[in-house]
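Worked example 2:
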Amino acid sequence: LYLSYMTRAEENYLKALYHLSGREDALVSTTELADRLETKPSSATDMLQKLHEKSLVAYTKYKGAKLSEEGRQKASQIVRKHRLWEVFLVDKLDFGWEEVHEIAEQLEHIKSPELVERLDQFLGCPTTDPHGDPIPDQKGQVVAISKTLLADQPLQSSVTLMGIKDSDADFLTYLSQKGIKLGSCITVLDKEPFDQSMTIEIDGQMHFISKTISTNIYVQTL
């Protein structure tokens, strides 16, 4: 979809609504949206009214907003670009997974649909980004991945790291320093009943991790 008539700010609002509404397409409050974009609720209200006039958002005063069908499609393509660029930066330019989000935030606003599709082909049509998040296809569809939190795994279970719930750069840097990355095979050795901290094994190395960490890692049973 050609997004040239949309400003960067409008694209950012659509993307934020896409992330906040989830697959259920839930109504998002103005306050929640403003918090996500680090702006004032009054500014968010003004933008939602603009997007409502463009038929990209269904906005109800005092209740909130949700993406229209057209808005969701456009938002999915912005997310698609962002995640494809993240794959490119990690796989082809050797950036760390903690470095790519801010750069992809800039690259996602490039308008050329042909560039995006050539990028997709060049990368081999990936279905997930470097953090394990699904990449929407041209139609906005995503492949659902069955995954649960590491915190919920029983003792002696062996799982594969499939994604990160919190893509904060400091958290990703911490994981990298521990040698924890996508595809890592993790075995749960022990779990402390008091604070739910865990002892895990990755590639023969033992690590002690807090509940904060284990509740931010998505895994899939081997």
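The first helix runs from residue 8 to 21. The two ends are 38 Å apart (CA to CA).
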